[in-house]
Amino acid sequence: MQSDEVLHLLTALRQADCEIWIAGGWGVDALAGHQTRPHRDLDLAVNVNNEGAVLHVLTSLGYLIDTDWRPVRVELAGPNGGWVDVHPVAFDARGHGRQPALDGGYFEYPPDAFGWGVIDGVKVSCLSREQQLRFHRGYEPRAQDLHDLQVLQRVQTGST
């Protein structure tokens, strides 16, 4: 998934008034302010109230649902080989979000889970550094996870 495709999708979703935040590797790179590694997909945390609109926008752009594990996630394959992984998040009145997990539990999104980053000079909404670090706990990290953790460490020290 190339940065121009990411920005194209974000523009279309923004025009449809969809509330989304970039997660995963692109979210880490947005926090760093530049791309640090190749990405297979674009992970999006999506307000569950916008899930239908998000899927409509993506399918109208040629993305096709490949994996449908709702309410946990929906993965779509793009016409140019990229992927989008949609993670629906339900919010309470205090702004705390929850996303169902496959094991019956939940991924928590406290109010500090959301922030801003930059992709190719464009300001984008993304998960915060703190939330990215939370999501990198509790499992054996892969090579890209170790890379992302190093990037997040540099984001903290301001040496990205």
Summarize the SSE layout with pairings:
Blueprint: H1 3-15, E1 20-23, H2 24-32, E2 41-47, H3 51-60, E3 64-69, E4 73-77, E5 83-91, E6 97-100, E7 106-109, E8 114-119, E9 122-127, H4 129-135, H5 143-157
Parallel strand pairs: 2-5
Antiparallel strand pairs: 1-2, 3-4, 4-5, 5-6, 6-7, 8-9
Helix pairs in contact: 2-5
Structure characterization notes:
The protein has 160 residues and is of the alpha+beta class. It is 34% helix and 32% strand. The protein has one domain: Beta Polymerase, domain 2 (2-Layer Sandwich), CATH 3.30.460. The chain contains five helices and nine strands, in the order αβαβαβββββββαα. Helix 2 (24-32) runs parallel beside helix 5. The longest helix is centred in the C-terminal third of the chain and has 15 residues, at 143-157. The protein starts with a helix and ends with a helix. The model has no long low-confidence stretch (mean pLDDT 96).
